[in-house]
Amino acid sequence: MTAPVTLKKTSTLTSAPVAPLLDRLFAEADAATSPAVSELPREELQRLAGSRTDYRKFYGLAKDLWLPVSRETGTLLYMLARANWAKGIVEFGTSFGLSTIHLAAALRDNGGGRLITTEFESSKIARARHHLEEAGLADLVEFREGDALQTLAAGLPESIDLVLLDGAKPLYPDILDLLEDRLQTGALIVADNADHSPEYLARVRSPAARYLSVPFAGDVELSVRLG
Q1: I want to staple 220 with a disulfide (CB 3.0 to 4.6 A). Which of 147, 182, 216, 225 is the partner?
Q2: Which pLDDT score is estimated for 8?
Q3: What is the C-alpha separation between 45 and 51, in angstroms, rounded?
Q4: Is residue 68 left, alpha or beta, with left meaning phi > 0 and alpha meaning psi from -120 to 50?
């Protein structure tokens, strides 16, 4: 009797061109520096990053920094998007597109969909577009340039299955306000460095909220919409 043949199916994330591209981009991210940020006093840096009014100044100064999710968080994003068969995804904070690549790879392996990603810095948008083209995933991504309070105020999918919050931390509650009515039951929200947004954490962890939320991997808050 002939033994059954086991077919190995590789994912977009772990095969070329995406896997070697991510290796290269994470290495570039690790090597990036920003004199404009490093020369700021620590107290001023913390004030700008945590300000609801001066966040634009901080991200302008940090335009040379990649500020990516970790490799582990990137893999988590791919896994979550695959697990809930995400078709509509919104990302707050494109930066140079590393997290965008992980999410778009999941959409490709889910059979397609739409990823809306928004970024304040025009130079980062340009680089992110190029990286998504290198990954062969640009057709799945809609880039929006500008302040997310405006770029995500209209033109959203009827149904959102997954959200990544990884932009200005003080704006996390405001971005959730814009998206909340479109969140499907079972929709997932990944908030990177959410400990810098206590208002957001209080909201998604409240017993009265329609979320179940837990900290994950030390710097991520993972929440599910209960209905």
Answers
A1: 216
A2: 44
A3: 10
A4: beta
Report in angstroms the alpha-carbon separations of 204 from 29, 97, 150.
30, 26, 23
Task: Name the percent of the chain lying above pLDDT 70.
Answer: 94
Predicted pLDDT at 41: 77
CA dist 79 and 91 (Å) reads 16
Cβ neighbors of 94 (< 8 A, separation 6 or more) are 100, 117, 118, 119, 124, 125, 128, 143
pLDDT in tens, 167-201: 999 999 999 999 999 999 999 999 999 998 999 99
Spatial strand order in the sheet of 183-192: 141-145, 114-119, 88-92, 160-165, 183-192, 220-225, 211-216
Chain-centroid distance of CA 80 in Å reads 12
Strands 141-145 and 114-119: parallel
Rounded to 5 degrees, φ, ψ at 135 are -75, -10
